[in-house]
Amino acid sequence: MSSPLFQIEIITPKRVLYQNHILAAFIPGILGNFEILNGHAPLISSMAIGEIRVREEDGYEVAFAAGGGFAEVHDNKVLIFAETCEKASDIDINRAKQTNERILQNMIDRASYDPDQMLQAIRRSINRIRIATKYTEQHHR
Questions:
Q1: Which of 88, 75, 79, 86 is nearest to 136 (CA)?
Q2: Which tens digit of pLDDT belongs to each residue from 86-104?
Q3: Alpha carbon of residue 123 to chain centroid
Q4: How many Å apart are CA 14 and CA 97, to the nearest integer?
Q5: pLDDT in tens, 47-62
Q6: DSSP 96-125
Q7: How crowded is residue 126: how many other Cβ atoms within 10 Å of its Cβ?
Q8: Spatial distance between the Cα atoms of 93 and 131, rounded to a whole number of angstroms
Q9: I want to staple 53 with a disulfide (CB 3.0 to 4.6 A). Which of 26, 73, 74, 82 is the partner?
């Protein structure tokens, strides 16, 4: 009987954030969320700003706030290349809220205002706050 586990790596421009053998991955695709299990068909998908969750071998789920990127699946391995990504338990909610307020203030002041960049920054900021709050309340690791 083959193992239900497969390998995942979550990579940002700065570092390999997470590397493990897991049971499942839940990824925010641009056309909707999707789940990866052992034996999944090869695929490459753009990734939206959203929540990545991985179910570890012991059944615990670890969540990450992702700022977009893409995912590649092949040979029972998932590579996630994220523009930004943080483990939910590492997000400082107060700092995330301050960042969100600063972004909104920059929009009001219109100092170096690029609407597309500001919209993406707001989406990433709200995503971080939402995920950190959700997992702080649920006491996930």
A1: 88
A2: 999 999 888 888 888 887 8
A3: 12
A4: 23
A5: 999 999 999 999 999 9
A6: HHHHHHHHHHHHHHTTT--HHHHHHHHHHH
A7: 15
A8: 9
A9: 26
d(CA 34, CA 45): 10
Residue 13 CB coordination number (10 Å) = 10
pTM of this structure: 0.86
Checking DSSP bridges between strand 43-56 and strand 32-37, what pairing results, if any? unpaired
Q: Report the C-alpha gap between 98 and 104 in whole angstroms.
A: 10
Residues 75-88, buried b or exposed e (16+ Cβ, 10 A)?
A: ebebebbbebbbbb
H or E element in which residue 94 lies? helix 93-109
Strands 6-11 and 77-82: parallel
Locate 35 and state its tokens. Answer: 């789940």
Rounded CA gap, 24 and 78, in Å? 10
